[in-house]
Amino acid sequence: MTEVTGSPGAPHTEVLRSEYCVIACAEAWRGSGEILASPMGLIPSLGARLARLTFAPDLLLTDGEALLVRPDGTPEGWLPYRQHLALVSGGLRHVMMGASQLDRYGNQNISCIGDWSRPRRQLLGVRGAPLNTLNNPTSYWVPKHSRRVFVAKVDMVCGVGYDRVAAHPGTERFHRIPRVVTDLGVLDFETPDRSMRLAALHPGVSVDQVREATDFELAVPDEVPYTREPDAEELRLIREVLDPAGARTKEVAG
């Protein structure tokens, strides 16, 4: 029987689910030092900026074009694209990407749904996912945890998972998937076979909810902690400084 530890089963009335997601994303960069954070999406961006303002002051943030920026968006340095690519290829960046599909070993698909030669849905395309996953730590953000995303087999591999890296020795030097954050909790790959594991639940979510929303057998430890509570200063920063308009609640309700 799985025991859930940490925060109580119901969320604190003053903390929204979206705010737990921001905290979980921020934790991806804890202890990173002076590396480039590349969050993709609103809540990962809020998480990276919150981390920079609190426990990760050395974190570098980019506007995605040519500048290093402060958490408020004002420039603090020059980052031309060639230098950005040098950071990527050298493992000095931690990107948090999205995923249309993820399997139990962390293979990610953002390209198409169905047979790639005649897909039912055309998505973003492979883009930089292979380079990201083989050259620097890559985490994922999934705003809606469901069986449509967490699939037994991805329709096309864009981001590289642990099973494919194991099949090609020498490719694992910078490959690492620290965490997958969803609207239900946090997942990682800290298992003997590097398959996906339930690492934490957001308060108010049960283990059964996560299992029901996952189309493969998920590793679940005997004790599952809750996502940590934000402190008063973190809540103030999220609500008054980083996202006063409350856009986070449009991405994750509840």
UniProtKB/TrEMBL annotation:
SMART domains: CoA_trans (SM00882). Pfam families: CoA_trans. InterPro entries: CoA_trans_fam_I, NagB/RpiA_transferase-like. Its EC number is 2.8.3.-. It comes from the Bacteria. Belongs to the 3-oxoacid CoA-transferase subunit B family. PANTHER family: ACETATE COA-TRANSFERASE YDIF (PTHR43293), CHOLESTEROL RING-CLEAVING HYDROLASE IPDB SUBUNIT (PTHR43293:SF3). This is CoA-transferase.
